[in-house]
Amino acid sequence: MKQQKATLCPEKEPTSQILALFRGRPGMTISGAELGQLLNMSRTAVWKHVHALKELGYQIQAEPSRGYRLLATPDLLIPQEISAGLAVHRIGRQIICYREVDSTNRLAYTLAEDGAPEGTTVVADTQTHGKGRLGRTWVSPPGVNLYCSIVLRPSIQPTAASQLTFLSVVALARTIERVAGLTSRIKWPNDLLIADRKIAGLLNELSAETDRVNFLILGIGVNLNMLPEQFPPDLRQPATSLAIECGKPVHRASFARALLEELDGLYGTYLAKGYEPIRAEWLRRSAMGGRTVTVTNPGYELTGVVRGIDEYGALLVQGGNGHIEQVLAGDVKLVENNPLV
Ligand code: BTN
After folding, report:
1. Cα(136)–Cα(105) distance, integer angstroms
2. Residues flanking ligand 1, CB < 6 Å
3. Staple partner for 222: which of 200, 213, 316, 323, CB 3.0–4.6 Å?
4. CA torsion sign, 210 to 211 to 212 to 218?
């Protein structure tokens, strides 16, 4: 396993505990003596940890002979910011944040192999080798976007694993609507588009035996605050970010929190009611129903009209000969005009 940089602010660290105390008394001044007493440390140690928080970007006022007051928090992807007020049953109960990793998917996969519980969420500010679909790279600059991977351990057959891909993209579409009030459209299997520009991508990876899933990694990358000039010029598909679409920056930690809640809610629905409600919502939010697409696989190309997805997540495409083909993998392009409709 490659060496990873240290995690950011694990929840049991004193800096995290100080933040939790400030959050418990919003806007109030807490004396150094009280902080020291509550955390079982000297006032000098309190000062040191407050200083560390300031270094991270927290605005903390030291009021002579009164104490410390938290004035403002930065948009940091650290467990305390993401989990403040987080209401979940499974997904996001354990959040591990890094400043830099090679790939959150790779790291989450390793943690899952080592027994990480269901719902463990790995978040990074930047990825040096972000993985995209079909062996591509996911551009992951620091300070602007969300890159996260979640460990799931559903009791399902490996053939049903793609259902979780549909679940995660629907949860993401719901999150974008909730946070920014924008409607996004899903492009099979797991791209999310706003006005035909890609805003997010999902890469789900599976560890399975013949008849059971060991674990699944939901890998999610969302372009939140990326500026037009930060996108590589040679992107295969036009891309956008939420900030570009809504004209103002998006608070990353709040977005991550909302995403975890939507994923958790939908996963609860999936466990209780199965795949059908997810499939129905996927179809409603899909950019593809009735659109003409070209599907490309090595040595194979099919142009036809999308008629839906089946229970295994295959795209159903009706070719020029009228037959409906089941597409299980491949690169799908939406065709501008709809000559086959
Ligand atoms: C795609 O090609 O559209 C899928 C992109 C998935 C990117 C995310 S970012 C977080 C997670 N970690 C990775 O290395 N990849 C996924």
Report:
1. 14
2. 103-105, 127, 130-133, 136, 138, 147-149, 191, 201-203, 219-221
3. 200
4. positive
Cβ atoms of 282 and 289 closer than 8 Å: no
Lowest mean pLDDT among 2-11, 118-127, 242-251, 327-336: 2-11
Question: 134: helix, coil or strand?
Answer: helix
Q: How far apart are CA 303 and CA 293, in angstroms?
A: 6
Short-list 205, 207, 104, 218, CA closest to 168 = 218
To the nearest 10°, report the CA torsion of 43, 48, 52, 55: 110
CA dihedral 58, 63, 69, 74 (to 10 degrees): -10
pLDDT of residue 6: 64
pLDDT band at 340 (very low <50, low <70, confident <90, very high): very low
User: Which residue matches tokens 């020291």?
Assistant: 36
- Contact residues for 14 (Cβ-Cβ < 8 A; gap 6+): 39, 41, 45, 49
| Least trusted range by pLDDT, from 67-76, 164-173, 281-290 | 281-290
pTM of the model: 0.87
DSSP 8-state assignment for residue 195: T
Q: How far apart are the first and last CA of the chain?
A: 51
- Residue 189, preceding bond cis, omega within 30 degrees? yes
In the reported structure, the alpha carbon of residue 143 is separated from the centroid of ligand 1 by a whole-number distance in angstroms of 16
Q: Is the pLDDT score of 339 beyond 50?
A: no
Separation of CA 261 and ligand 1 centre (Å): 20
Query: What tokens appear for 133 in the block?
Result: 């679909």
* CA-proximal residue: ligand 1, atom 9 (nearest): 221
CA–CA separation, 160 vs 157, rounded Å? 5
**Cα 256–203–317 angle (5° rounding)?**
120
Give the dihedral sign, CA 133/138/144/150. positive
